[in-house]
Amino acid sequence: MAGAVAPSASPAELEMLACWGAFITLVDDCFDRRSAHASVSEVRTVLDPLVSILTGNASRSEPGAPLVAALEDLWQRTLAGAAPGWCTRFAASYTAFAEATCQEAQWRQERYVPSVREYVQLRRRTITVVPLLQVTERHLNPWPQAGVLHEVCADVVGWTNDLFDAGAESTDDAGLVGVLARERGVGRGEAAAMARAMIEERLEHFETVALQLTAAHPHLLDNRSRIEGLRTFLHGAVAWQYESRRYRATLPVQQESKQRRAAADPVEEAAVRLERRLALAVAPGGALPDRCEGRVLETALLLALMRTHGTHQEEQRQLTCWLEERREKADSLDALLIDAVLRPHTLPPGAADAAAPVTDRVTASTGQRGRLKHTMLHAVLYVLGGLKLRDEDIPDAGPGHALSTFTQVNLLAARVIYAQATAYPHTVSTSERFQLADLLDDDGGRLLWEASAATHLLGLNALQSCRPRHPLISRALTGLLLARDREGGMPFLDSQDIWLTATGGLAYLTRPGLRLYTPRMGAFVAARQAADGGWPFASGIRQTDVDTTTRCMEFLHALDSHHYRDYLTRGAEYLAGKAGPGGGFPTWREGDDPDLDMTAGAILALAPLGTRYAPLVIDATRFVIDAQHPDGTWSPSWTLSEPSVILRAVDALHAARHTPGIDPARLSAAAARAVARLTATQQPDGGWGHSPHHDSDALSTAQALPIVTRCGPPHVTAAGMAYLLSCQDDTGCFPSPPDQTGPRPLAFDYPVVADLHALTALTRAQPLSMTKIIAERNRSTR
Question: Do 193 and 211 share a domain, yes or no?
């Protein structure tokens, strides 16, 4: 938390902020973590002694309670170096918090229903943002004009808490959403939308006031620095709440009257319902922070780690239950992993043979890295169930400088596990073991190393096998347990916020009701460009990648190409450095195997930038066309979905069509083959699945529809759109099996991905009247 709100602070300052954050939380726990709300007298019993310490009125005659002793110590350390008058200002803020907390308790005790105005004024003080913010400014001189910015910070953090608590909040709780619902006479979903709009207004007010303060004293660099510090604090406080899994409840749903729904165009109605849902999904800082669903691989590895570490017995029981509940419907690989960790005695010596179909798929989909993936899966089975490993299969050490961060850790972990398991520990050098620990110790402030539980857990299990008392393991377990999903399972990733925000931003630009969020989304994306010019898929990780970079560039160009021209130029140079000799682009590092998705993304990012990058676009387009199979498909890599690859490739070909030097005949023929493939593989229900052999699903259908809408027969579009509309649930979302993979070919699920693609499909169908589409479909059927 401290690093999020004050990233440039010294270690001593960060420690001070962390202590204050912990203290504030402990005080809150006195009132919130109980079956019944605290009474006014109970609140005063806790808070009055604390206020007395800050105001200098504390009695020294009796030993204080633990909270009092803690604050006495913390207050003396905080005063060291504070600016003159700061302690008085801080004491006033904390006193206001105490009085507001008592007022809140009295309202609850008397069952008083506050107005929105009354609630907002009270919440601004109970959230304790201003006292914590003042700790970050304790060395600075007073600046009364910034008081309104302090209030904005408090409002945004407090209201964001209320918004995301609303899904779990009982109807009589006095959160902002509940108060709005009562006063305005609307449902909780509509009240949640109002709360989100209020947050947006306060964020705009912050920028307006900041501009006024800067304009009034343009020569004062200190003013600009302090405003930037407040902006960082605000966005850091909200971001930390997301990262620490503060927000777990499901957002309320907006309901519309049946009369209006029946009268509306069904495509537009579906888009509006989804739009209202997605409006609540954007964080105040501009990120789209969806949650990855738990997965068997990571959950089993976490359970194995805690068992060998000998800790967290209750959490072990929870993970065991989670895995048992999923055994019945598990596919062959998940069933093997579950049985390996829960019933290792049943794992036969030849269990590796049972994994052969999966490892063969891994090898087929990952090129030169297939052997490492094969080795990693066997290492996992050893960690989970004691699979016998052979010393001759120990992977060779790789050139670390030429590997992605993920491959470095995976390779080191596999080597350590094999060496320990085969009684050949000296096969791995001491320096490699220290390198593994050093890599895992650099977490970038995330709960999971490089946001990846799979790599993090494999590395930790390897470390546990050779250095079981390493302090890093205990520290890492805390973050791992916090990163679990709401059902208790361990996800593959704890964040994909940059990739999702860029992908979502493109979809948001197509809808007027969502476009207002895109400037903040663009600022969020731009601020996370790495020093090498690329973008990582999540905040706080080091490894940039071509996929995220191309999507960020697409979004920023569509949003405001002039404003973001410097970011686009650096991104283009990053991509130029990744291009392979055959025109293809890899995912991670130059020299890796080229990838169709990455190459198509590079075309989409570079084609709009003009003739400077035309040679790269021409070569990349040739690569995409040459990689197409005779049946119109392309080989998937980071996706399970055939329509996903076709969408990316055909969009890239469409973007390249005006680049000088492109062969238009080959381009048109490739696009026509892809459209013909989608037309031929449409399922009888109108939808598409991951492949023609899979059942239809919303995500695959949403990925196919933009192509057939633009280039296919109207009756194909009509049938596809009818199927997609049937997939929308009561919340406005489009539930679907996931198609993203990692490590390839294992699927992981960010539910918002299906919603974003559905929004794009619905919007691209807007120029076509749904009535005409359905009529055309009926005519074709006859």
Answer: yes
Residue 294 dihedral angles phi and psi, to the nearest 5°: -60, 155
The verdict on 312 and 352 lying in the same domain is yes
Residue 338: inside a domain: yes
Element (H, E) at 741: strand 740-741
Task: Report phi then psi at 448, rounded to 5.
Answer: -115, 145
In tens, the pLDDT along 522-555 reads: 999 999 999 999 999 999 899 999 999 999 999 9
Number of domains in the chain: 4
Of the candidates 704, 728, 726, which has an alpha carbon nearest to the alpha carbon of residue 717? Answer: 704
Gap between the Cα atoms of 201 and 101, Å rounded: 26
d(CA 213, CA 224): 8
Let me know: does 136 contact 9? Beta carbons within 8 Å.
yes
329: left (phi over 0), alpha (psi -120 to 50) or beta: alpha
Q: Are residues 444 and 532 in the same domain?
A: no
Q: Locate tokens 């031929």: which residue?
A: 680
Residue 198 lies in a domain: yes
- Taking a C-beta distance cutoff of 8 angstroms, is the pair 744, 637 a contact? yes
CATH of residue 137's domain is 1.10.600.10
Per-residue model confidence as pLDDT tens digits over 70-119: 999 999 999 988 999 999 999 999 999 999 999 999 998 898 989 999 99
619 belongs to a structural domain: no
- Structure-block tokens of residue 651: 């969009």
Q: Which residues pair with 535 in a beta bridge?
A: 545
- 56 within domain boundaries: yes
Q: Are 714 and 692 in contact (CB under 8 A)?
A: no
Which residues, 6 or more positions from 734, have their beta carbon under 8 angstroms from its beta carbon? 274, 698, 699, 702, 724, 727, 728, 754, 755, 758
